[in-house]
Amino acid sequence: MATNQQQTIDEQLRVLKERFPQVDESKLACLCRRHNGNIEQVAARLAKRESRMNKFDSLETRFGPNLTALQQECPSIQSMKRGRLLKTMERYGGDVDQVRKFAQKVEARHHREGEHGCVSRHQHREELKTKY
Known about the structure:
By secondary structure, the protein is mostly helical. The chain has one domain (about 1-130). Helices cover about 85% and strands about 0% of the residues. The longest helix has about 35 residues, at about 95-130.
C-alpha cells in the first residue's frame, strides 16, 4: 500500500515538474503535502503565481528604465518597493510627473504621521484586540 501511495506521489510530482519546470522539486513536494495531494489546487496556485510574475516582468520591461531614472532623480522614492512603483507607473500610464507627485504625497503623509502614526496604529490594533 505504501509503495502504491509513493508511486502516486512521484507521478504527481512528475506531472507538476513538466508543467512548472522552473519550480524546485522540494517546493512542489511541499505544496502537494499542503494541498493533500490535490495537484489541481497546486497547479492553480502555481499558475496564479506564474501569472503575477509574468505581469511583473511585463511592467519591468515597459516602465523599468523610466522608473530607474526616476529613482536616481528622487532619492525618497528609493525606499519604496519597486513592485509598488511599477504598479503606480502602470496606473498613471507611465507619466513620470504623476508618479513623482504620488511619491511626494506618500512621503508627506509618512512625515506627517511620523513615529506617532506607527505607535497610534499599534495602539489602535491592541484596542481592537481587547475589544473583540
